[in-house]
Amino acid sequence: MKNFKARAIGLAAACLFSLAHAAEPLPALAAEPENLTVSGLSSGAFMAVQFHVAHSSRVRGAGIMAGGPYYCAGGSVLKALSSCMSPNFFMPAPGPEPLRAEVDKQAAAGRIDPPDGLRGSRVWLLSGGRDAIVKSAVTDAARAFYLQWLPESAIAFEHLPDAGHAMIVPSAKAACEMTEPPYINHCGDFDAPGRLLAHLLGKLNPRAQAAGGELLAFDQSGFAAQEAGMADTGYVYIPASCRAGGCRIHVAFHGCRQNADTAGETWTRQSGYNEWAETNRLLVLYPQTSNARDTNGCWDWWGYTGPAYHTRAAPQIAAVWKMVERLAEKP
After folding, report:
1. Global pTM exceeds 0.85
2. Catalytic annotation on 186?
3. In this structure, what are the phi and psi dihedrals at residue 168, rounded to the nearest 5 degrees?
4. Is there a domain that residue 294 lies in?
5. Which among 39, 42, 83, 290 is annotated as catalytic?
6. Is 9 inside any structural domain?
7. pLDDT tens digits for 131-148?
8. Is 56 a catalytic site residue?
């Protein structure tokens, strides 16, 4: 009987501890439904492109750091590792025409928004000259893809000759040329979040010296099943001024091995978005992948969740879209 009571007390204590540490629901913040923008690094860059194309009628711009064009891998791991990361003579980076054919096919079937929605967008691209993971030729291919709908003036392409495979922010400690976790580097005063947000959104107020808002860990489990490669917990940065509603939303997709399961809150706190969000009435949504699918926490840009991975019906794209819609709801 004593053992039973001890086990019961232990179980109750464990339940109370679990409840006390459970993530909160994602709040409805009456965010502005228009002017939605996205960005990402590496696999997050490929996801940002997919999300942009799938929801082009609502997404007004994309920041692509060390990433490539829509449907680059064509559902193939081999192409993902070669043509879309280290293209060569035998497996070159994809040209724009077949990718446009895929866009037209998916749009005709109603699986993505009509591509004319891209025409009012803005795109910011970044590649590093010392990036051995995603070569500059892949980002060149992303630019060529977007030029099928956008004028050159809508596309900014920045190349940092000394940069490795990383987010670039002034406050980072890692040297510019590094390609090591947490993939956040210092290259002088180059500020990738500030530059991409200014290109996508227009003139910004100066960034805050410190992010004084709330970084909220929220329950992500209701938006997608773990089988989709999504973690139970996501994050959103909420400046105090955004609690009253009317703020814009920016979705920041982490790269491989930058998810919270692997790197804790490094990406959500140190990637440089929050300081800009603080002074520009911007909510920053940080959706999170899990490590359950043995994919190093990468977003699905080659088809591990199924053949519809690059459409609105893709489990990861659909989950993030639901999060955006929740932020836009009135409390």
Report:
1. yes
2. no
3. -115, 115
4. yes
5. 42
6. no
7. 999 999 999 999 999 999
8. no
Catalytic residue among 43, 55, 140, 165: 165
165 is catalytic: yes
Q: DSSP secondary structure string, 186-224?
A: E-TT--HHHHHHHHHH-S-PPPPSS--SEEEEEE-TTTS
Domain membership flag for residue 14: no
**Is 10 inside any structural domain?**
no
Pairing of strands 59-65, 36-41: parallel
The tally of domains found in the chain comes to: 1
Sole residue written with tokens 């009509």 = 114
> Residue 160 is inside which H or E element, if any?
strand 155-160
DSSP state letter for 171:
T
Reported as a pLDDT band with limits 50, 70 and 90, residue 22 is low
pLDDT tens per residue across span 237-249: 999 999 999 999 9
Q: Which domain holds residue 314?
A: 27-328
Choice among 131, 140, 191, 300 that is catalytic = 131
Closest CA to 213 of 235, 182, 246, 191: 235
